[in-house]
């Protein structure tokens, strides 16, 4: 059962080049995780000190690229990716879940370098409470015991090349003992303007654009407060606008739908982001602010930037 959760790195279709706006975090991840996993000889002069951390946590609002970044780490590092689901560790018979946890770490040792990824890690390894079921507490204790064993050196004097990678949008619900075992914590927050611009460029790179009527910089401005996932959905809605328009015109001409020529569909325009389906509430509100007063919108943008900076300072401290 556990073996079914393994994804070979070559089968993961996501790399760092596919992620927009997280360049700083990606560089840190390379230095602290990927290089120690892929080039352990480079750190052999201080192997225990410079080994890859046994645990890494990605945290932040939903839709900001945490899961995508985790997959890219596995792809770029060439590590086997064990995508651990809650259902994998849930068994009805007492003690079976503990056996599955042991099987996960045993498999990771055989496949190393390996990454054990737990999405929504707070649901699996959340804070232990007095009213918690005994079996749940035993699973967490078993997981932490085996996790600690990763730091033990092998016969060559090197620690295991296995990383437990977690993602959550509820960091405060994770058990303190689990957080201690994840020394590397990377906040993945809402993108700022330059990051949103990069995200838009990646999403729309293979999309037909009406260059004369499209302002990507403006779209980057009015998507303030939106996650990468929200921006992708806004682009999807906008891309449907010219298709919908072309189908309507084709039907009005009385021609058969089977004769439709997709090459004649026009490119995306700025206005397509604000149609009947376009973009969601945040995008519509920001668009109205920008239309009513450019000065007013600039104030909103500046406030957003300062708030994001304050959050980073708070997280670091």
UniProtKB/TrEMBL annotation:
Residues 295-306 have a biased composition (Acidic residues). One of its GO terms (molecular function) is membrane protein dislocase activity. Residues 276-317 are annotated as: Disordered. It is found in: Mitochondrion outer membrane. InterPro entries: AAA+_ATPase, AAA_lid_3, ATPase_AAA_core, ATPase_AAA_CS, Mito_OM_Translocase_MSP1, P-loop_NTPase. It holds the Pfam family AAA_lid_3. One of its GO terms (cellular component) is mitochondrial outer membrane. Residues 52-192 form the AAA+ ATPase domain. Gene3D superfamilies: 1.10.8.60, P-loop containing nucleotide triphosphate hydrolases. Coiled coil: none annotated. The keyword Mitochondrion applies. It is a single-pass membrane protein. PROSITE patterns: AAA. Belongs to the AAA ATPase family. This is Putative atpase family aaa domain-containing protein 1 protein.
């Amino acid at each position: 059962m556990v073996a079914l959760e393994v994804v070979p790195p070559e089968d993961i279709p996501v790399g760092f080049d596919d992620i927009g706006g997280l360049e700083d975090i990606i560089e840190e991840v390379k230095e602290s995780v990927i290089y120690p996993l892929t080039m352990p000889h480079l750190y052999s002069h201080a192997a225990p000190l410079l080994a890859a951390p046994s645990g890494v946590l990605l945290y932040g609002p939903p839709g900001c690229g945490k899961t995508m970044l985790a997959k890219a780490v596995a792809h770029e590092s060439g590590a086997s990716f064990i995508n651990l689901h809650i259902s994998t560790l849930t068994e009805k018979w007492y003690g079976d879940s503990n056996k599955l946890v042991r099987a996960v770490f045993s498999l990771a040792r055989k496949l190393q370098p390996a990454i054990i990824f737990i999405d929504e890690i707070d649901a699996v390894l959340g804070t232990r409470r007095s009213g918690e079921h005994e079996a749940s507490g035993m699973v967490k204790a078993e997981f932490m015991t085996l996790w600690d064993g990763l730091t033990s050196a092998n016969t060559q004097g090197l620690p295991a090349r296995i990383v437990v990678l977690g993602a959550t949008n509820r960091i405060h619900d994770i058990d303190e003992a689990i957080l201690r075992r994840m020394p590397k914590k990377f906040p993945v927050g809402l993108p700022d303007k330059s990051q949103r611009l990069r995200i838009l460029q990646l999403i729309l790179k293979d999309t037909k654009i009406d260059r004369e009527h499209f302002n990507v910089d403006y779209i980057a401005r009015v998507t303030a407060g939106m996650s990468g996932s929200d921006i992708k959905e806004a682009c999807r809605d906008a891309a449907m606008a010219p298709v919908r328009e072309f189908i309507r015109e084709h039907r009005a001409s009385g021609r058969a739908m089977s004769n439709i020529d997709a090459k004649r569909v026009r490119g995306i325009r700025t206005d397509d982001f604000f149609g009947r389906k376009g973009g969601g509430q945040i995008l519509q509100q920001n668009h109205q602010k920008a239309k009513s007063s450019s000065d007013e919108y600039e104030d909103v943008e500046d406030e957003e930037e300062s708030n994001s900076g304050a959050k980073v300072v708070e997280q670091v401290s």
